[in-house]
Amino acid sequence: MKEETLNEMTVQEACDYAVAKIVEQCGRCTRSDNNEISCAYGNQKGRHCAVGWLLDEDNAELMGFKGNVDGLISKGLAPKFISNNRYVLRTLQQFHDTRGCPARGELLIGLNDLGVDTSAPQYKDWVDMGDLYVRD
Asked: Do residues 80 and 71 touch, judged by C-beta distance below 8 A?
């Protein structure tokens, strides 16, 4: 997503979009570099993590960055929208990275506490997927 598009979104719209995309792709995003598998913002198959769906997929540095939202911010790579909404997007990233249903449910509460309305169906769909997701 281009930064200009992201900047036009509300936090609610960004979260709704990102969670819908991870449900659509049926899981997390991993990247294999030199026989090492790690979580990734984007990979060679066009999959993204939750926050990755909010980044410019044409920017190889962003898509290949290894680290969390705080790392993106500290390295000066994060778009302003992400820097300004660090706590929500960190929780969204954790919601995406967590495998088990109970833990995802707890993070769903955390998103709610941060002002994100998680009543849209994709949030429950992602919690219900639990460990049953497609791996790259």
From this structure: no
Close Cβ partners of 87 (under 8 Å, ≥ 6 residues apart): 114
Q: What is the pLDDT of residues 10-60, one digit of tens each?
A: 999 999 999 999 889 887 777 766 666 667 788 888 888 889 999 999 998
d(CA 93, CA 1): 16
Residue 42's contacts (CB-CB under 8 Å, 6 or more residues apart) are 29, 31, 48, 49, 52, 55, 57, 62, 63, 64
| C-alpha closest to that of 89 among 100, 78, 105, 101 | 78
91: amino acid identity, one letter: T
Q: For residue 93, how many C-alpha atoms fall within 13 Å in the half-sphere facing its CB? A: 21
Find residue 36's DSSP bridge partners: 33
| Burial group, residue 91, by CB count within 10 angstroms (0-12, 13-18, 19+) | buried
